[in-house]
Amino acid sequence: MGRAESYSELTRWAELRFAAAKDRRAALPQRRRAALDGVAHALRAGSMDPAIPPRHLLYLDLDGPEPLAAVAVGDLDAATHVTWQISGSGIRAATAMWGTVREAGQLLLEQRAVGAEDPAVVAWLGYPAPGLLRAVFNTSARAAVERLTHDLLTFARLRPDAPHTAVEAHSYGATLAAHALSSLASAHRAVRIDALATTGSAGMPRRLAREPALLGVPGGSLFEGVAADDHLARAGRLLSGRALLEGRRFGVDGLPGLGLLPVTGHNTSRFVPGSRSPSYGYRDPGTQSLRNLALVTTGRVPLTGLGGPGPRP
Predict the structure, then answer these.
(1) Where do the DUF1023 domain residues begin and end (predicted)?
(2) pTM for this one?
(3) Residue 109 in contact with residue 298, Cβ under 8 Å?
(4) Gap between the Cα atoms of 236 and 202, Å rounded
(5) Among 4, 97, 122, 146, which is least packed by CB within 10 angstroms?
């Protein structure tokens, strides 16, 4: 196969490879079967909220020791706003594919609700995310830079009209995003990122935290949300020596006056229907966090603790 000239073409090729992988499923090792099944479930019509638009496979890479995948929610060829959603510690294609794609769909629905005309969100699990112990090191992030920058450069090639583009990263995903964006910026590669939003950040190298211009993202469009009791993120930054981008926070602790719920702890999804004592993660519907993520990833102003807009980027 040659080089794809559109995402619809890239998806057709990915689907052909996916079908071939399904034909040999029984011969695959357990983790590859799990990734294959997770992708199939995420792509299946009716497998999640029917308001979430169809999902499109960008790739499922079963060649390495750890399966890697990326799935787009919405139409990447026509989207007015595109968000690359990068997950953190322990979130891999073999264990969390359906849930990660559902989170991308939930962000898309919230982006529509705040006024984005035709958004698309990529659930990107293109690296073997480290466990908690290995997440104190930058090794996994550095190793994943090539894959993420390749995918962003492909996007820039296939969408030369440059729709509004954001990166939304959680936990160790923020560390990876920082390494990848600084690599693109330092090499003067033609990728425009209009906003970076992180939640529960495991931090970025202190040089990048001190000099955020090195990320190549407009200074007023760098945002961080950290829950008051997200002790895991704080411990990760302390043990790793990484840091937050000071002064660019958005609220995640709830706005009762607007009916927006607070985030508890470190996870992206915590809500369990029917729970007597529900708790919520950074990407759960109904939270101030998801509302603000939708706002800042589409070029809008986040809500402050008073329910109004924050300082204009």
Answers:
(1) 68-236
(2) 0.95
(3) no
(4) 5
(5) 146
Q: Is residue 309 part of a domain?
A: no
CA distance 10 to 12: 6
CA 297 to chain centre: 11
**What are the structure tokens assigned to 152, written together?**
């962003």
Distances (CA, A) of 262 to 18, 220, 227: 39, 24, 8
| Contact present, 51 and 110 (Cβ < 8 Å) | no
Domain count, the chain: 1
pLDDT per residue over 91-100, tens digit each?
A: 999 999 999 9
Look up the CATH number of the domain holding residue 218. 3.40.50.1820
Strand stretches in 140-279, DSSP E:
164-170, 195-199, 222-225
Q: Is 116 contained in some domain?
A: yes
Instruction: Give residue-wise pLDDT tens across range 63-93.
Output: 999 999 999 999 999 999 999 999 999 999 9
